[in-house]
Write a structure and sequence with these properties.
Metal Binding Protein, Guanine Nucleotide Exchange Factor, Chain A, binds zinc ion, single chain, 10 strands, three-stranded antiparallel β-sheet, 139 residues, seven-stranded mixed β-sheet, 5% helix, mainly beta
Amino acid sequence: MQQLETGGCLCGAIRYSFAREAAVSAHHCHCDDCKKSTGSGKATILLLAEQALKLEGQVKFYTVVGSDGSHVTRGFCPQCGSPLVSFVEEAAEIRFVKAGSLDDSSWVRIDSSYWQQSAAEWSPIDNSIPCFKGNPEPD
Ligand SMILES: [Zn+2]
Ligand SMILES: [Zn+2]
């Protein structure tokens, strides 16, 4: 049986859904751009295939060039500012959903952390899971 997961922004203008089994993995990212874009110590993201994610509403996107030269596009609600979904343009078949925007995130288990080297002291990395200094090595 398919468990449908739902989520959205703070004001409710943007909603999304996906089948739970489409979520490949979950990660904390402590990079400087994620700190800025979330206003917090890290972004917590769920990886899933682009076609598995159903988005409703007008997401606003902002693109920056990442540390490795790739183009990282972050999507957020233009009305309330909640960060929701992001992707790397060079690998656009994968979407990263911000775990905190899920309606129910109790099932999420974090696999690893990225960007140990830029983790803030007040938001330490989780030592119980694998941690990459920067971006994880591609498989
Ligand atoms: Zn909103
Ligand atoms: Zn990041």
